[in-house]
Specification:
mainly alpha; 112 residues
Length: 112
């Protein structure tokens, strides 16, 4: 039996997982505009994920725990790939009409 709070958390996990997948694709393609857009969406998604997780309290099914662990692993991998991209000498300077803000925000987001 799936409880509504379990379902809310599962849906929040799935949404965040989809955003992480899209982010990994954007990083692979070096599409900084998409990474920037996804960063904002991920912030919103994470807020929903935290709220849904709070509803569960200490109860977390094995399946949801595994999905959450996989999500954390995806985030670590995206962060690592972005750092490699940055350290590999790739030009992270946005092309016009983007601003320097984009580059700085991306560097700050992935340096945490």
């Amino acid at each position: 039996m799936i409880f509504s709070h379990d379902q809310s958390f599962a849906e929040a996990l799935e949404l965040h997982e989809n955003l992480l997948f899209a982010e990994s694709q954007a990083i692979s393609c070096r599409d900084l505009a998409v990474v920037e857009d996804l960063l904002s969406q991920k912030e919103e998604s994470l807020s929903g994920l935290v709220a849904a997780r709070k509803e569960l309290g200490t109860l977390l099914s094995k399946d949801l725990h595994e999905k959450f662990s996989n999500l954390l692993q995806m985030q670590r991998k995206n962060t690592e790939n972005f750092r490699k991209l940055h350290q590999g000498g790739c030009d992270l300077t946005p092309k016009p009409p983007q601003t320097k803000y984009l580059s700085d925000r991306l560097k700050n987001a992935y340096s945490r």
